Amino acid sequence: MRKDTVKLISAEGFEFVIDKRAAMVSQTIRNMLTSPGIFAETQLGEVRFPEISTTILEKICQYFYWSLQYARY
């Protein structure tokens, strides 16, 4: 996996590979990927969401891209 992408994994095991900038829209994901120490999320660049279904995670990813493009911070 490239350093500029992140893999988000749904409860069913479906993998969404998205741009890291888009994933960083979420403060929670940002914290998981940038926390100091040796954590799987930081090392592998992937985050598992065992409680979030594939359909919901897909919508979340769509929101990340929308927010990255249109939201003003």
TrEMBL record:
Pathway field: Protein modification; protein ubiquitination
InterPro entries assigned: ELC1 (IPR039948), SKP1/BTB/POZ_sf (IPR011333), Skp1_comp_POZ (IPR016073)
GO annotation terms (biological process): ubiquitin-dependent protein catabolic process
Domain SKP1 component POZ per the UniProt entry, residue ranges: 5-65
SUPFAM superfamilies membership: POZ domain
Protein origin, superkingdom: Eukaryota
PANTHER family: ELONGIN-C
Protein's UniProt name: Elongin-C
Protein species of origin: Trapa incisa
